[in-house]
Specification:
This protein is an alpha+beta fold. The protein contains five helices and twelve strands. This is Polysaccharide export protein Wza.
Length: 253
């Protein structure tokens, strides 16, 4: 009987605990070196079909002549994400935006700097020394799976790391698998699925450290998730142990 009770306790303890190595980010095998430096690898985001971009144009012309003038008073002085979305341009299925007078302008596959320069040259025939600035509007990522606050999150930063993205969702839950984080991404009319191991410190030197707009991040659960403290069927186990004890005592009598 004692052996059975000891076995039951060990079993419950084993399934109820998550090893520390499964919940620590960016683990380093060489712990003797307290500081490490990694090259910061960033790939510049390019404009994709159905992206929303905000185009700001200025020139030496009078404001009344500048047909794309973005004077704050023109739009109520607002500059929130919602305000910008209302005056932004959506890249159509052909990868172009339709601008006043200029007409269709292909911007798909270009960085915002490249698209700005292209539009600036096209506006040169209509405006006096135009200056063009383009920014993405309503950039967002969607975080799903074993996180504390799954959902869609908007951000304005130029770059957003996978850790910052998970921070928006309240971090990975206790039973989330930090070695199996899936990224689903649209790229060049294809859907890419890749896995990241957030416990590997080498991730700091890879381009995959940064997410891209419209990425879907899915955190897979640990295999022992269903037997964790929160979900373990304590009532069933305790009831079974009590029943075994009662039956054993009855047999002894």
């Amino acid at each position: 009987m004692r052996k059975f009770l000891l076995f039951s306790f060990i079993t419950v303890f084993f399934f109820g605990c998550v090893p520390q190595k499964d919940v620590i980010y960016l683990q380093d095998i060489d712990i003797s070196n307290a500081e490490k430096t990694f090259d910061n690898v960033k790939s510049e985001n390019t404009i994709k079909v159905f992206d929303q971009i905000y185009i700001q144009v200025s020139s030496f012309d009078d404001g009344n002549i500048n047909f794309m003038n973005n004077d704050p008073n023109r739009y109520g002085g607002g500059r929130s994400e919602l305000d910008l979305a209302m005056v932004s341009y959506t890249v159509n299925k052909d990868g172009a935006v339709k601008l006043p007078i200029v007409g269709q302008t292909k911007v798909e596959g270009l960085t915002v700097d490249e698209a700005s320069e292209k539009i600036r040259k096209e506006l040169g025939d209509y405006l006096n020394t135009p200056s063009v600035k383009i920014t993405f509007v309503n950039k967002s990522i969607t975080v799903l799976g074993s996180v504390n606050r799954p959902g869609r999150y908007f951000y304005a930063a130029e770059y957003l790391s996978i850790f910052q993205a998970l921070g928006l969702a309240g971090d990975i839950s206790e039973y989330g698998n930090r070695k199996e984080v899936v990224i689903v991404r649209d790229s060049n009319h294809q859907v890419i699925r890749k896995k990241l191991n957030l416990t590997d410190i080498a991730l700091l030197g890879e381009a995959d450290l940064y997410v891209q707009p419209d990425d879907v991040i899915y955190v897979e659960p640990l295999k022992r998730r269903h037997w964790g403290f929160a979900a373990f069927p304590w009532a069933v186990v305790l009831s079974s142990i009590t029943t075994v004890i009662l039956v054993a005592n009855y047999v002894k009598q």
